[in-house]
Design brief:
The protein has 141 residues and is α/β, with parallel strands linked by helices.
Length: 141
């Protein structure tokens, strides 16, 4: 049975599969809407805010979370300390990526992996790494 992975994108962004071959190779069922069942979650850019909210609200169903280039929420936003999922933070080192990654690490924990010299548009380049985190041990031969 395929691993369900929810991809949270910025509002108004159409569903994209950054690398359909890699998604299939990882035996992943990609979704864009929360279905109330166990899932790993990947949030890209502002979609990461939704990913964090879902992981905090459904800790019993979300065991793994990846944030890709997710900016720090606006002023007054509470740190999402209720997240219990094993978290991976993927950022490019340009455009404030280091500071954003550190903010999220302080808020939700997790491991930071930086792409030197890259900006925010890294989802396609880190897709395999993101899937390896949310769907560990699922690689098809």
């Amino acid at each position: 049975m395929a691993r369900r992975v929810l991809l949270c994108l910025p509002s108004g962004t159409a569903l994209i599969d950054p690398d359909p071959d890699e998604t299939a190779r990882r035996d992943v069922e990609l979704a864009t809407e929360w279905g109330g069942s166990a899932a790993g979650i990947i949030g890209w850019s502002e979609g990461g805010w939704t990913a964090v909210d879902l992981a905090a609200q459904h800790g019993d169903l979300v065991d793994r979370l990846v944030l890709v280039s997710t900016p720090v929420p606006g002023e007054g936003a509470a740190a999402p300390s209720a997240v219990t999922a094993k978290t991976l933070l993927l950022y490019g080192s340009r455009d404030g990526g280091n500071a954003q990654a550190r903010w999220w690490q302080n808020a939700v924990g997790g491991r930071i992996e930086m792409l030197p010299g890259e900006g925010r548009d890294i989802l396609g380049r880190v897709w395999a790494r993101a899937l390896s985190h949310v769907a560990p041990g699922r690689l098809r031969k």
